[in-house]
Amino acid sequence: MRKTTSCLIALVLSYLLLGSTQSHAVPPKVIQAVPDNGDIDVAPNLNEIRITFDQPMSEGMSVVGGGETYPEVQGRPQWVNDRTLAVRVKLRPNHDYWLSANSNRFQNFQNRAGEPAEPYPIQFRTGAAKRLAGRTGIDDQASSGPLNAKDNRRAVNLLRSAIRDHYSYRDRLNIDWDKLLRSHQNTLFATKTPVEFARIAGTLLASAQDKHIWFQVGDEFIPSYVRPSVPNANYSLLPKLVPGLKKHGRAVVSGRWDDGIGYLAVASWDRNKLEDGKSLYDALDAVQGTEALIIDVRANGGGDERLAQQLAGCFLAERRLYGKHVYRDPKSPTGFTPPNERWVEPNPSRPRYAGHVAVLSGPAVMSSCESFLLMMKQVPDAVIVGAASQGSSGNPKPHDLQNGVVVLLPSWKDMMPDGRELAGVGIAPDIDVKAAPADFQLGDPVLEAAHAHLRGSKQ
User: Fold this and answer.
1) For 373-389, how does the pLDDT look when each residue is reduced to its tens digit (9 = 90+)?
2) Mean pLDDT, to the nearest integer, of 246-265?
3) Helix (H, G, I), strand (E, B) or coil at 310
4) What is the pLDDT of residue 175?
5) Are the CB atoms for 254 and 285 separated by under 8 Å?
6) What percent of the chain has pLDDT over 90?
7) Which has the closest alpha carbon to 312: 368, 262, 365, 255?
8) pLDDT beyond 80 at 114
9) SS3 label, residue 156
10) Is residue 210 within 8 Å of 395, Cβ to Cβ?
11) Among 109, 129, 213, 267, who pairs with 251 as Cys (CB 3.0-4.6 Å)?
């Protein structure tokens, strides 16, 4: 994989190679993975993931995943034999990982008759750096102090109160939170360490299907709901599709075509990755002079909304309303505050880009990056191209459970300028590009649709 695009790989690892024509009556399936789905305390020095199927396979593969939960892959995966694939990786300690062999979109794991394997998710967590062996049985006692039933009883009550009074999306899926906590409270009462309590509570709260809920024990963050979305893109093809790619910092690349259309990809709104905005401005400088611009955020899962405002402000001539939100307020008759408005201002430190703009979006786009989409919808003649965003925003706030565990819960409901809620809905594109997984193996229909639209806009 070229370094130019390594920062953008939120990615799907898909290699399509030819196999033989031997037939098999039953679609293949994974019979073993190392580490396997659900494993904890995986040794962080493990340098290889192995996936074994129940029958001989062709040489194609789709190792699916993205973002912070996707392992850092070292080189190209290799077939050890006709049933087992080895993926060399570099893992971090105390980290949650998720990948999948095949998915509903990407199905290049096939037997020799061309039948795709059943999707097989692999979610696991690494242990502390000092542990050099073992895949399960995390030593919670060594990582944090002992708890007793009194500590945990108080923590469960505080958790119940935090959900009732402060969790903005508590009613979204009609979950009976009191019943859920009561049915598992004895298990929580019996936990011996904060880490154990946090992991069990996190499993319970996963019922909310909310990626903005997580727990903190010291410096360790424990997610509740982990289900990465695969971007509607194949960034490994970018060097072939976009001329003159140039990397700016850790999360931005630029390029331009000979027809006067520029390309700018932003993989995150994380302030550190964007060097407080410097890499954004460097990339904008690189595309100055273009007549139209494609902004690709299909792999962007959010970050600092203020940085998104800075970039969007480079395309605006006047202040525009782009969103609203309400906070949970248990003292209010409605349970929420009156709506707060969010505005985006022209960026005074940059010249305004006056050309036509197309923003590429899709199912991996969430949180502050959805706010960026709403900002760009205020730009005259700008269009969103691709697929609907994820519909996930929360502005989580911490709540101390007083047993060494802090729970972070979404505090607001994010809304579009007209007051429609964003959660579970997302932002629909102006140009909807329906594409099958195979369409991204040799090309990028979303990028092509945006390019064609901008070429027409210039005429």
Assistant:
1) 999 999 999 999 999 99
2) 95
3) helix
4) 97
5) no
6) 60
7) 368
8) yes
9) helix
10) no
11) 267
Q: 3-state class of 88 per DSSP?
A: strand
Tokens of residue 417, six digits:
């300028």
Residue 235 CA to its chain's centroid (Å): 15
Q: Give the residue carrying structure tokens 């070229």.
A: 2
Q: Residue 251, CB half-sphere, CA atoms under 13 Å: how many? A: 26
Cβ count near 139 (within 10 Å): 13
Tokens 């609907």 correspond to what residue? Answer: 388
Indicate whether 265 pLDDT > 80: yes
**Contacts of 162 by beta carbon, 8 Å cutoff, 6+ apart:** 399, 401, 407, 409
Nearest to 97 by CA among 140, 133, 74, 64: 64
| Both structure tokens of 204 | 């319970």
- Please say whether the beta carbons of 152 and 173 come within 8 A: no
Predicted local distance difference test score (pLDDT) of residue 180: 96
* Residue 7: DSSP 8-state: G
Q: What is the DSSP letter of 353?
A: P
pLDDT over 80 (residue 80): yes
DSSP summary character for residue 252: E
Structure tokens at 134: 């073992």
Whether the CB-CB separation of 372 and 422 falls below 8 Å is answered with no
Average pLDDT over residues 311-340: 94
C-beta pairs of 343-349 under 8 Å, 24+ apart in sequence:
343/319, 344/309, 344/312, 344/313, 344/316, 344/319, 344/320, 344/375, 344/378, 345/309, 345/313, 345/316, 345/319, 346/313, 346/316, 346/317, 346/318, 346/319, 347/310, 347/311, 347/313, 347/314, 347/316
Segment 252-281 shows an average pLDDT of: 94
Contacts of 83 (CB under 8 A, 6+ apart): 52, 53, 54, 55, 56, 57
8 A C-beta contact, residue 77 and residue 64:
no
* Tens of pLDDT, residues 274-284: 999 999 999 99
- CB distance 133 to 44 below 8 Å: no
Which tokens belong to 107?
A: 């199905």
Buried b / exposed e across 235-250, counting CB within 10 Å, b at 16+? bbbbbebbeebebbbb
Chain CA centroid to CA 263, Å: 22
Cβ neighbours around 202 below 10 Å, total: 20
